[in-house]
Amino acid sequence: MALVGGAVLFYTSSLPGQSGTKPASAQEAPKTYGETWNPTIRVNLTPVPIDEVPFGVDGPYRVIVPGSSRVLAYGDGIAKTIASIDGASIRIGESLFPISELELVPVRSPSVWVGRHQYRGTVRLLRKTGDKLIAVNHVPLEEYIASVIDSEVPSTFGEAARQAQAIVARTYAVSQMTGHPQFDVFATSRSQKYLGYQYLNVDDRRLAGESNSSRNIAAETAGVVCTYNGKAFTTYYSAVCGGRTINGSTVFTDAVPALKSVECNWCREADRYRWTSTVPVGEASSLIRDHLKTSGKTFGTVRSIRLAKGPDGDLPYYEISDENATHRIAGTVLRRVLPYGVLNSPDFEASQDATTIRIAGRGHGHGVGFCQWGADGQAKAGRSALEIIRFYYPDAGTVRLRPPKP
Ligand SMILES: [Zn+2]
Question: For the whole model, what pTM was predicted?
Answer without folding.
Answer: 0.90
